Amino acid sequence: MTPFFRLHSGGVVRNGHGVLFVGPSGAGKTTLVVRLVSEGFALLSDDEVWIDPASRHLHPSPRRCLLKDSSRDLFPAHRHKLRQGDDQGGFWWLDPEDIRPNCRAAPSPVWGMVCLGPRRTRPVLEPIGQTAALTTALGESMNFPECRADGLSLLVELVKSARLFRLHTGDLDECARLLTAALP
Amino acid sequence: MSERLKPAVRADLEYHELDDGGVVCDPLADRIHTLNLTAAYVWSRLDGSRSIEQIATELHEITGVSIQTAVTDVGLAVERFQDEGLLQRP
């Protein structure tokens, strides 16, 4: 059985269209995902999206969302629902059901990939090329060695079929506005 | 590297073309290389039938860059491929 390809990425779905937020730890994946799910998007994951090598569909991962201390104050409505991480100081678990009931997404085809770039004074969402997107995705692949040949083909197919963006993060309200306007 | 050499890429490499470049997987070295548009063009011409000079001339004719720039760009790309062990040994 071929394993799922695991991408270090946030992911949401709206109207059946999956969108990935790819970037290293600290790039803002969880913050963006929790915000978008609060606004009605369905949740794939805040940190790790699984890709079925056969169907190419994005699958939700079962874990809870993990917010950093620095993001906790951005979600006052969820603050009382946060549970402190047992062995990870400065981290807070948030159960998806506490963001919005039944917010888990069904497996969905990918529509877009948003690579998270360095924070700017004003957020900017801009189109990027396939090479830049692929380079980012390769860097965030979690099980590439065991999926090498299939994994590369899968990622190439993904960047060829998806709309590709870079989001220079910043003010969360503005990021959410940009994404809500751009995503299907 | 001599401009008259006719380099060829290794046959065992996995290559995928992208709209704005390409990506090469080297299973022996366990490495992946991403190529920009110029490097991807050069890669596509390295089948052992063309010299660096010929590839540079083609690049000059297709893109309109000066022949000097084309020779430099092609030479640098081939040198990089050679340094990374992606070319067949002469």
Number of helical stretches of at least 4 residues of chain B: 3
The most extensive contact between chains is: A-B, 15 and 15 residues
The largest beta-sheet of chain B arranges its strands as: 1-2-3
The count of β-strands of chain B is 3
Helical content of chain B stands at 40-55%
Shape of chain A: globular
- Please tell me how large the radius of gyration of chain A is: 15 Å
Which structural class fits the helix and strand makeup of chain B? Answer: alpha+beta
Average per-residue pLDDT of chain B, rounded, comes to 93
SSE topology string of chain A: EEEHEEEEHEEHEEHHEH
Which consecutive residue ranges of chain B, at least 5 long each, have pLDDT under 50?
A: none
Tell me the number of strands of chain A: 12
Low-confidence stretches of chain A: none
CATH topology category name of chain A: Phosphoenolpyruvate Carboxykinase, domain 3
Assigned CATH architecture of chain A: Alpha-Beta Complex
- Kindly provide the name of the CATH class of chain A: Alpha Beta
Q: How would you write the strand order of the largest sheet of chain A?
A: 4-2-3-10-12-11
When the domains of chain A are counted, the total is 1
Note the total helix count of chain A.
6
Query: What does the overall shape of chain B look like?
Result: globular
Q: In this structure, how is the largest beta sheet of chain B organized?
A: 3 strands, antiparallel
